[in-house]
């Protein structure tokens, strides 16, 4: 399935930017409107009422009974008739499954091959390692574990099911509970990492094939429940000894980095893009995020990445302190995606940004 075959019947003067109604969809359609595109969202019935409130942003609302309907001929034909370019975000694979996401017969803005890497924690960490970006020490269940580690589950689960442990026995017991509850099928793609102490920092990047440029467009901190609530309790209450910390993301907080860190942040982005061209051809296109801990010695340790738009960019609908420096106008990540599509169309280079 080539991009050329997907778009050869399209009316390129009437393109529609489409996505799932979730995650960062409102930002995506808002940015698309700013750049003059038509928009479409696919939504479930129980979310339809909410998204109807944004009729100024959404030209077409495609309502389905379940996410499984997305890869049906009916939905694909509807999107094709709208000359749609689909923008994937973190909910796509989690909701529809990797098989559907990879085989969807609508051109994506971004790299399809990133889905399979993002679904496998070991492949993700391997890509960061290949890029030469510092990562936490990794353990297996055969290793002696005598210090705090974080155990992470595969896929874009928003931190759901992640847990901290200090021994093999503790890890095995908690993984057994997760299997019994159906959250995981097996332990193969679970990753065990050193728990690095420092400040979480999530960097938002955009790689432009049209400009051949990597841009730092923002940074954020995730607000996680209940780990962030527990740390506000005075130690004398002792309640933290009885409540299991969890890392479910409930929101994001804006972050402005000290300027002396920015050259290293850019270097990490450049390394990541270079490595992605080897591991997931044609390489990263458009938005991605490297998720890190900044230690008190200012060493930046990357523990995760997202190969598409992240929800933390929703903070910057009117642009971030960094996007203003690049563009001197309001430039959200959603609008930056639409701007890249527009430039590619004008340069007859859509095949550079679509897969």
Give a description of the structure.
Pathway: Purine metabolism; IMP biosynthesis via de novo pathway; 5-formamido-1-(5-phospho-D-ribosyl)imidazole-4-carboxamide from 5-amino-1-(5-phospho-D-ribosyl)imidazole-4-carboxamide (formate route): step 1/1. This is 5-formaminoimidazole-4-carboxamide-1-(beta)-D-ribofuranosyl 5'-monophosphate synthetase. Belongs to the phosphohexose mutase family. It is an enzyme of class 6 (ligase). One of its GO terms (molecular function) is ATP binding. This protein has 355 residues and is of the alpha+beta class. It has three domains: 3-108, Rossmann fold (3-Layer(aba) Sandwich), CATH 3.40.50; 121-132 and 197-346, D-amino Acid Aminotransferase, Chain A, domain 1, CATH 3.30.470; 138-194, Dna Ligase, domain 1 (2-Layer Sandwich). It is 32% helix and 23% strand. It is built from 13 helices and 13 strands. The chain has helices at residues 3-7, 25-34, 45-52, 73-81, 91-96, 98-103, 114-118, 121-130, 168-180, 227-230, 262-279, 321-327, 333-346, and strands at residues 16-20, 38-44, 60-64, 84-86, 138-139, 149-152, 163-165, 191-194, 199-208, 213-226, 247-254, 286-294, 300-306. Strands 11-10-9-12-13 form a five-stranded antiparallel sheet. Strands 3-2-1-4 form a four-stranded parallel sheet, with helices on both faces. The longest helix has 18 residues, at 262-279.
């Amino acid at each position: 399935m080539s991009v050329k075959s997907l778009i050869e019947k399209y009316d390129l003067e009437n393109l529609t930017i489409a996505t799932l109604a979730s995650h960062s969809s409102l930002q995506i359609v808002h940015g698309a409107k700013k750049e003059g595109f038509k928009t479409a969202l696919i939504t479930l019935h129980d979310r339809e009422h909410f998204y109807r409130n944004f009729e100024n942003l959404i030209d077409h609302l495609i309502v389905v009974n379940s996410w499984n309907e997305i890869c049906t001929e009916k939905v694909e034909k509807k999107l094709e008739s709208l000359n749609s370019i689909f923008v994937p975000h973190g909910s796509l694979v989690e909701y529809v499954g990797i098989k559907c996401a990879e085989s969807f017969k609508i051109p994506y803005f971004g790299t399809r091959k990133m889905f399979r890497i993002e679904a496998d924690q070991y492949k993700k960490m391997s890509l960061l390692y290949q890029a030469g970006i510092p990562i936490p020490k990794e353990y297996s269940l055969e290793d002696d574990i005598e210090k705090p580690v974080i155990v992470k589950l595969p896929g874009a689960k928003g931190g759901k099911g992640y847990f901290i442990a200090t021994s093999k026995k503790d890890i095995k017991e908690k993984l057994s509970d997760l299997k019994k509850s159906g959250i995981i099928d097996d332990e193969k793609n679970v990753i065990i990492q050193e728990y690095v102490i420092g400040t979480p920092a999530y960097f938002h990047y955009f790689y432009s094939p049209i400009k051949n440029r990597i841009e730092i467009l923002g940074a954020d901190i995730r607000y996680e429940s209940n780990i962030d609530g527990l740390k506000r309790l005075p130690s004398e209450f002792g309640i933290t000894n009885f409540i299991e910390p969890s890392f479910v993301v409930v929101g994001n907080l804006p972050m402005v980095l000290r300027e002396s860190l920015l050259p290293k942040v850019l270097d990490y982005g450049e390394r990541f893009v270079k490595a992605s061209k080897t591991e997931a051809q044609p390489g990263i296109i458009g938005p991605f995020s490297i998720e890190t801990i900044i230690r008190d010695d200012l060493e930046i340790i990357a523990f995760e990445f997202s190969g598409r738009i992240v929800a933390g960019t929703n903070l910057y609908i009117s642009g971030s302190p960094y996007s203003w420096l690049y563009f001197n106008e309001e430039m959200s990540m959603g609008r930056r995606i639409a701007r890249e599509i527009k430039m590619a169309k004008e340069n007859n280079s859509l095949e550079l940004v679509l897969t």
